[in-house]
Amino acid sequence: MDRNRRRSRAAITVAAVGALVTGVVVSLATTANAATTLGASAAEKGRYFGTAVAAYKLSDSTYSTILNREFNMVTPENEMKWDATEPSQNSFSYGSADQIVARAQQQGMRVRGHALAWHSQQPGWVNNLSGTALRNAMLNHVTQVATYYKGKIYAWDVVNEAFADGSTGARRDSNLQRTGNDWIEAAFRAARAADPGAKLCYNDYNTDGQNAKSNAVYAMVQDFKSRGVPIDCVGFQSHFNPQSPVPSDYQANLQRFANLGVDVQITELDIEGSGTAQANNFRTVTQACLNVSRCTGITVWGIRDSDSWRASGTPLLFDGNGTKKAAYDAVLQALNGGNPTSPSPSNPSSPSPSNPSSPSPSQSNPNPGTGGCTATVSINQWQGGFVATVRVTAGSSGTNSWSVRLTLPSGATISNAWNADRSASSGAVTFTNVSYNGKINAGQFTEFGFQSSGTAGTLTPTCTAA
Ligand code: G2I
Fold this sequence. Notes:
Blueprint: H1 2-32, H2 38-44, E1 48-53, H3 61-70, E2 73-76, H4 82-85, H5 95-107, E3 110-118, H6 131-148, E4 155-160, H7 183-194, E5 199-204, H8 212-227, E6 233-236, E7 239-240, H9 250-258, E8 263-271, H10 275-291, E9 295-300, H11 326-336, E10 373-382, E11 385-394, E12 402-407, E13 414-418, E14 420-422, E15 428-433, E16 445-453, E17 462-465
Parallel strand pairs: 1-2, 1-9, 2-3, 3-4, 4-5, 5-6, 6-8, 7-8, 8-9
Antiparallel strand pairs: 10-11, 11-16, 12-15, 12-17, 13-16, 14-15
Helix pairs in contact: 2-11, 6-7, 9-10, 10-11
């Protein structure tokens, strides 16, 4: 009896060791493998991979399956524009945009807000206004929408397409421009006051290489930084076709903006074409972002070719059936390869140090942790709240999953987290990986973040890997 029991216990032990050994083998095999989705691969490089989303397509199962699987950032394609969110003056309508935000939150994706102030897609009532009345209506719009979505938006396109095409380098003539040249900075200040945790971007097209238009945007950003106007990022739409190809100085142009002290983002990428030529163009753009440390992510302007605003040019990564194209493989390969420059985890720009109400010392607290990963945290603190960005770096064995524990000071309550699940909203909180970022190869890292009320103080994260 005794003997039998001992024998069966020994058998269990052997089985357990066997399982353990198998587990190790599996884990080594998996960590050696490259990430298999755009979002997971970008996350390994400290970046996001996003898409424009149309609310009415969320019920399309092919569309939704690809969205949930591949992307970790979404931009509402039309649902946050002025005509959609304020159809009559001071009466706001958020239903469609909310559907997209809800999906994003459910899936652990972040949201780029698009766009607060733009000459296009304005509601009809705006046409009846000019001068101070229009300026005030615009500022009210920015304040109301940014306040409504406070804490839920990674970055806002605060102002979209405000410069003219061609060689003049002038502002685009528009009803908003006619309210006075300072309309852009007024919009940025209103957005900062409404949601100090969101990065604030200027977004435009035909600014993807160095030219008169991008030079004019560059001068504006330089001026804003020197005068303390809050701006954190510049979006490069990157709509390309044979008439408007990827410029040869695309990366250099991203880099010169980054050197001004702003993040750069590729915000509406699509490239007309097919086959290898199209794939190579997508590869070039992806590699350019990886090569620029402050290029924080790439968003494509739709999922399938048939979802595109210019579907006939088949400019996206999936065909009309939802099948991956050569362009998809090229992007994934680029994301998985090379030795990109890591984006800094202690991004001092959000909220910007130029925001007088937000002294934003960023801090990094390396902690050796246990079990094969380390975590460091950087904080952007402002009056009454902060955003924490946590970088998880795998040790020599890589990880299959990880968790990070830290203790928030009293008075700090988390309103929103991305790229991780959390066990609580205050006090001692354990963050665990989500489905797409548990696997980190040896020496690689991923990042997650959260927004909280209160004062961060010194946060000391402890990382545990499995
Ligand atoms: O034009 C491409 C993009 C250029 N940069 C700014 C983006 O906001 C812009 O997006 C496009 C959307 O992809 C289109 O979907 O903006 C267009 C309007 O400027 C959007 O087109 C509109 C149609 O013009 C409307 O007739 C239609 O009701 O889409 C609406 C919703 O399907």
